[in-house]
């Protein structure tokens, strides 16, 4: 038996898999320097905050005040509320891969992409208000700047930014859901009316 020279087995060649839009955006964020990433997040937070506060002034103010008065309850309510919106958005993204599901996917994805950042911005303004009060200033403008600074600093580390942003989403979702459920009524106990029989 004559043995021929060893031949190398060629590995099958697979076409490169294109990156999704989410992976492409994530790669761009990772490649940016921490200072540049912080500046972009700061500017994006300011721009988004001005848009949200300008388009929804009444709802935003009530949500921010509700979040400031009862942060613990807002976070407890916000965890299932945020998870529900994320689940609906995920279902919408999955439906986009089918021909029949695109019609139903658009509103689901739109709701998620609208509510989650808006709630996070409102929570960031609430946290910024709490920080600005310690510096002797108050108001939505100071709160928005403080929240933008917080998110900008957190974006220096992507893992820290994910934790902070997720917490803000839950925080804002709880306060926003409470305002929606209450129909925009006052949640402060001092603002509630007292029945005549209980008045002294």
Structure commentary:
The chain has 200 residues and is an all-alpha fold. The chain has a domain at 41-76 and 116-184. It is built from seven helices and no strands. It has helices at residues 21-31, 34-55, 57-69, 71-95, 102-134, 140-154, 158-182. Helix 2 (34-55) crosses helix 3, helix 4 packs antiparallel against helix 5 and helix 4 (71-95) crosses helix 7 (158-182). The longest helix is centred in the middle third of the chain and has 33 residues, at 102-134. The protein is globular and about 55 Å long. The N and C termini lie far apart (113 Å). The model is unreliable at 186-194 (pLDDT under 50).
Question: Can you lay out the helices and strands and say which pair or pack?
Answer:
Layout (H helix, E strand, L loop, with lengths): L20 H11 L2 H22 L1 H13 L1 H25 L6 H33 L5 H15 L3 H25 L18
For this entry, give a set of tags.
7 helices, 200 residues, mainly alpha, globular, single chain
Helix content: over 70%
Task: Give the number of helices.
Answer: 7
Residue fraction in strands: under 5%
Global mean pLDDT = 80
Question: Tell me about the biggest sheet?
Answer: none
Task: Classify the oligomer.
Answer: single chain
Give me the count of strands: 0
- Termini Cα gap: 113 Å
User: Which shape, going by the Cα principal axes?
Assistant: globular
Runs in which pLDDT lies below 50 for 5 or more consecutive residues are: 186-194
Which sequence of SSEs, written as H and E, runs from N to C? HHHHHHH
- Gyration radius, in Å: 24 Å
Which structural class should the secondary elements be placed in? mainly alpha
Keywords: Membrane, Transmembrane, Transmembrane helix
């Amino acid at each position: 038996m004559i043995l021929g020279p060893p031949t190398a087995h060629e590995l099958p060649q697979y076409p490169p898999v294109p990156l999704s839009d989410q992976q492409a955006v994530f790669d761009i964020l990772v490649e940016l320097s921490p200072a540049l990433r912080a500046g972009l997040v700061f500017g994006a937070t300011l721009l988004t905050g001005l848009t949200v506060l300008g388009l929804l002034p009444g709802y935003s103010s009530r949500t921010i005040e509700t979040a400031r008065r009862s942060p613990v309850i807002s976070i407890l309510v916000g965890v299932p509320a945020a998870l529900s919106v994320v689940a609906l958005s995920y279902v919408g993204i999955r439906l986009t891969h089918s021909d029949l599901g695109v019609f139903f996917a658009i509103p689901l994805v739109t709701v998620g992409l609208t509510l989650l950042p808006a709630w996070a911005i409102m929570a960031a303004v609430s946290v910024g208000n709490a920080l600005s009060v310690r510096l002797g200033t108050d108001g939505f403008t100071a709160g928005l700047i403080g929240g933008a600074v917080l998110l900008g600093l957190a974006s220096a580390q992507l893992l820290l930014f994910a934790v902070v942003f997720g917490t803000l989403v839950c925080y804002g979702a709880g306060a926003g859901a409470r305002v929606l459920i209450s129909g925009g009524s006052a949640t402060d106990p001092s603002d509630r009316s007292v029945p005549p029989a209980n008045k002294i």
